[in-house]
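To illustrate this point, we now present one chain and its tokenised fold:
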Amino acid sequence: HYVLRPPVDYAPKAVGLADAVRAATGIECELIKGDGGIFDVIAEGQKIYSKRDTGVFPEHDEIIAKLKSD
């Protein structure tokens, strides 16, 4: 199960990331509204990316590489 948690401001970016992940890996992502600037990517119950930790929105290739390495 793969989850992206975008705040409302990041919804277009999150949809773009979900589309890129699906195109590159065939993985369907679930988008769950976040708040307070949170943007987490959770794969199989493990957080693989947190905007709160990095301070920046992830690049598509970064997330795709992490998903492919698991």
User: Anything to note?
Assistant: The CA atoms of residues 10 and 35 lie 10 Å apart.
